[in-house]
Amino acid sequence: MAQPLRVLRKEWVFAYLLLTPLFVLLSAFAIVPTFYTFWSSLYSKGTARRPAQFIGLDNYDAMLADPTFWLVLKNNLWYAAIVIPVSMALALLMALWANRAMSMRAWVRCAYFTPTMLPMIAAANLWLFFYTPDLGLLDQITALFGVASINWLGQPNTALGAVMVVTIWKEAGFFMIFYLAALQTIPPDLRDAARLEGASRWQYGRRVLWPLLAPTTLFILINALINSVKLVDHLFILTKGGPNNASKLMLYWIWETAFAYMDTPSAAVLTVVLLLGLGLVAAFQFRYAERRVHYQ
Fold it and tell me: What is the pLDDT of residues 4-55, one digit of tens each?
């Protein structure tokens, strides 16, 4: 009995030794900064003459009373609510098309994936040319039909939508790769069996194909939710959050608060709120979504 316990203890020691580098890196770049951010959010903004003081939850009260916070939060919710389903639906359609037996299939897949390979800054500059009033490609096309020039990025009612289009164009090809890989793992015999049973294409997609794609869909959904608060590179090029905060998103506002306004405590408060939101996403994944997805 003593011998198995000794072997088990050695395995535990080896396991902890193997986990030590990961724990050190996770603590240095995730756990410790998270606690430091929360602690910083409890202090006032310090200056050279007036050091920061502990003020508790006053910064959180100020954030809730700030109308800009609710505007940016609404922008981000609309951004996620539109970009995520549209980009995932387009990715699935492109994957279904690229998975078909047709000529030049490799070129089709490459064309769908090309936007993903572009850096976001390069993609934003490309779309900045498309959106330029009078000279941009969109206005050149609409002018053929007698439509007046539109300042897509300079109007509050179109700025956020224009930013969404860039993100969808950029992300759909990336998500397509995962759907395409999942489709190629589904045996063709399932489709043949469904046809023999008299199932239509819609019934096969709803009853067979979609359940088999559920793990991939969940993986893409979680990544898309994270990207909805992370992909803000194009805001620096396209709108810088304007006009009048109409296209400002959470992460961009955190950066602006911390480095443009030099208000570190307020930026820490916003970061804590963002981390709580991502924590709710993780809880949804592990407590609800994982139970409804079959991996075999």
Answer: 666 667 778 888 888 888 889 989 988 899 999 999 999 988 777 788 888 9
Two structure tokens written together for 10: 């050695």
Please count the other Cβ atoms lying within 10 Å of the Cβ belonging to residue 143: 12
Determine contact, residues 284/77, Cβ cutoff 8 Å: no
Does residue 21 have a cis peptide bond before it, meaning omega lies within 30 degrees of 0? no
The SS3 call for residue 43 is strand
Q: Nearest 5°: phi and psi at 43? A: -115, 160
Residue 1: is its pLDDT beyond 60?
Answer: no
Q: Give the C-alpha separation, 214 to 228, whole Å.
A: 21
- Output the CA torsion sign for 288, 293, 295, 296: positive
What are 160's two structure tokens?
A: 């956020």
List, as one string, the DSSP characters of 53-81.
Answer: -B-TTHHHHHHHH-HHHHHHHHHHHHHHH
Report the alpha-carbon distance of residue 112 to residue 168 in Å, rounded: 12
The pLDDT confidence band at residue 231, using thresholds 50, 70 and 90, is confident
Q: Can you read off the two tokens belonging to residue 66?
A: 């700030």
In three-state secondary structure terms, 242 is coil
Look at residue 198 and give its three-state secondary structure. Answer: coil
pLDDT of residue 165: 94
The DSSP-derived string for 75-117 is HHHHHHHHHHHHHHHHHHHHHHHHTS--TTHHHHHHHHHHHHH
Q: How many residues does the chain have?
A: 296
Lowest average pLDDT, out of 63-67, 87-91, 240-244, goes to: 240-244
Gap between the Cα atoms of 25 and 41, Å rounded: 24
Place of tokens 């994936």: 113
**Distance from the Cα of residue 204 to its chain's centroid:** 30
Longest dimension (CA), the chain: 88
H/E run at residue 158:
helix 156-183
